[in-house]
Amino acid sequence: MPFTKPPAGSSFDGGDDITFEDTPPVTVVDELKKAAEAIGGTVDDEVVDQQVEEEEQDDIPVADKQAYIRSMLAKERFTKSYELFGGALHVTLQNRLVSENELIKTKEDLTGAYKLACSIKEIVAETGDKYLVSADLVSGGDCSVDPLLDMDDILYAALLRAFHEFEELCDILFRRASSPDFWIKIAGAI
Fold it and tell me: Which of 105, 126, 104 lies closest to 114, judged by CA?
């Protein structure tokens, strides 16, 4: 095998081992900072990190983007269903109303449970039996977390995992929907 010159910043001690000094990898943020400095500007790390994260996570299915836009245009809640326990249960989550968010602000304890309760549209078993529906949790302008607090902790953890994924999806879709590019990319598919 032919000998190749070690990369810059490495040392070769002449023995059997080649050692390389630790050099941090160059990131997109580093490249942007370098380019901005070259023209006398600066880069806001937080903004760049958020943009890079969103671009890296652009694995949002087009169907979710379309459903999000359709729900806004129809003045309905955005919903998404998640399969739990290999399909034994299906939970459908919905974005919360402003009134529900205001109600949650008045709750001093268990705000996470209240957010989850207001976000559950329904939980249905694979047999079609309804396990829990939003009317069990939200009615008359109030929200009850009792059915959630009385459930098995494994089921509650699975619901929380789906809920956090849904919340992140809603967050990303909300931020992206403010960009004209978002609308252009899916305009023909709505």
Answer: 104
| Domain regions of the chain by residue span | 56-189
pTM recorded for the entire structure: 0.66
SS (H, E, C) the chain: CCCCCCCCCEEECCCCCEEECCCCCCCHHHHHHHHHHHCCCCCCHHHHHHHHHHHHCCCCCHHHHHHHHHHHHCCCCCEEEEEEHHHCEEEEEECCCHHHHHHHHHCCCCHHHHHHHHHEEEEEECCCCEEEEHHHHEECCEECCHHHHCCCHHHHHHHHHHHHHHHHHHHHHHHHHCCHHHHHHHHHHC
Residue 99 CB neighbour total at 10 angstroms = 11
As a whole number of angstroms, the distance between CA 100 and CA 143 comes to: 8
pLDDT in tens, 34-73: 767 777 777 676 666 665 565 555 678 888 988 998 898 8
Phi, psi of 28 (to 5 degrees): -60, -40
Q: How many CB atoms lie within 10 A of CB 22?
A: 5
Distance CA 61, CA 91 (A): 19
